[in-house]
From TrEMBL:
Alphabetized InterPro entries for the sequence: AAA+_ATPase (IPR003593), ABC_transporter-like_ATP-bd (IPR003439), ABC_transporter-like_CS (IPR017871), P-loop_NTPase (IPR027417)
The entry's keywords: ATP-binding, Nucleotide-binding, Transport
Lineage start: Bacteria, Bacillati, Actinomycetota, Actinomycetes, Kitasatosporales
SMART domains: AAA
Protein name, UniProt field: ATP-binding cassette domain-containing protein
Family per record: Belongs to the ABC transporter superfamily.
Gene3D superfamilies membership: P-loop containing nucleotide triphosphate hydrolases
Length: 304
């Protein structure tokens, strides 16, 4: 079992601190979503974990070893950092084969990863003619070649069609089910909702949240109740008087927070208010994420 440990990680480029005293762990057997707005420092952190950039301070280790100290890194950690990195003139099979040979891995692994990523039928084709989705699969096949216990994906679904997105999501989940530690970055909360078990959220290089997905859902955006009533105006006043916060929902409804649906129902019965609907709302993940990261977005567009 291999865990990624990031401890007090800091990276400066000239005067800019792009990763700032960041600490978190990525546990085996689950998908950890690494979230943050554009420019938050996700790619930099992943590049440091993969030994592609040196930290200014702190460390990022794989099972307590630096990437540079791993004897055959491909057998310990695989990464998809940039799908465009594959040599376009090479055939998929040849690309994987060259990678296997240079890492001392058996040829059968090439067949195995081609099968696992559904690329068998295009193994003899040049990667240059591949769609983005197929290039992503080839990048993932490369990452899996050494059967590593840790996998790192940087924005893997960027630019993919819905089918490609679904495939990657399912694939990441299956890797976690096999007991691997999977770290996947995104700047979109909604993407993580269906994939991640755990969330690490950063903004301006700093840790904002490190939490289980279900805890995150409970803590953010939960507790709003939609109330539909023909007497919306009058009931809003009753609710506010009882201590709730009330916003206008889609007409003629109210969005109430600070009271449970049971309490709202009792208040309505007491004042003989007719209710057409009383439903606890699913938290909007995107809203929760925006709220969490709003102070750490570097360039905010002017709001209309
Ligand atoms: N080699 C470098 N030299 C100077 N600045 C850099 C370098 N690499 C990254 N940066 C800066 O570090 C900051 C963080 O970038 P990074 O790519 O890690 O963020 P990110 O969270 O992955 O964002 P995105 O989702 O846009 O890729 C950015 O402001 C970027 O311009």
């Amino acid at each position: 079992m291999t865990t990624i440990h990031v401890r007090g990680l800091t990276k400066r480029y000239g005067p800019d601190t792009v990763v700032d005293d960041l600490s978190f762990t990525v546990e085996p057997g689950q998908v950890t979503g690494f979230l943050g707005p554009n420019g938050a420092g996700k790619s930099t952190t992943m590049r440091i974990i993969m030994g592609l950039a040196a930290p200014t301070a702190g460390s990022a280790t794989l099972g307590d070893r630096d990437y540079r100290d791993l004897p055959v890194p491909l057998t310990e950690v695989g990464a998809l950092l940039d799908a465009a990195a594959v040599h376009g003139s090479r055939k998929a099979y040849d690309h994987l084969h060259a990678l296997a040979v240079s890492n001392g891995l058996p040829r059968r692994r090439v067949e195995e990863v081609l099968a696992r990523t559904g690329l068998e039928s295009v193994a003899g084709k040049r990667a240059g003619g591949f769609s983005l989705g197929m290039r992503q699969r080839l990048g993932i096949a490369s990452a899996l070649l050494g059967d590593p216990r840790v996998l790192i994906f940087d924005e893997p679904v960027n630019g993919l069609d819905p089918e490609g997105i679904r495939w990657i999501r399912d694939f990441m989940r299956s890797l976690a089910r096999e007991g691997r530690a999977v770290l996947v970055s995104s700047h979109l909360m909604s993407e993580m909702a269906q994939t991640a078990d755990h969330l690490v959220v950063i903004g301006r290089g700093r840790l904002i949240a490190d939490t289980g997905m279900s805890e995150f859902l409970r803590a953010n955006g939960g507790g709003t109740v939609l109330v539909r009533t023909p007497e919306a105006g009058a009931f809003a006043l009753r609710l506010t008087a009882a201590g709730a916060t009330v916003r206008q929902g889609p007409e003629p409804s109210l969005l109430v927070s600070g009271m449970t649906s049971d309490e709202i129902g009792r208040l309505a019965a007491y004042h003989r208010v007719t209710l057409g609907e009383l439903s606890p709302q699913q938290p909007s993940l995107e809203d929760a994420f925006m709220e969490l990261t709003k102070d750490s977005v570097e360039y905010q567009g002017a709001t209309a």
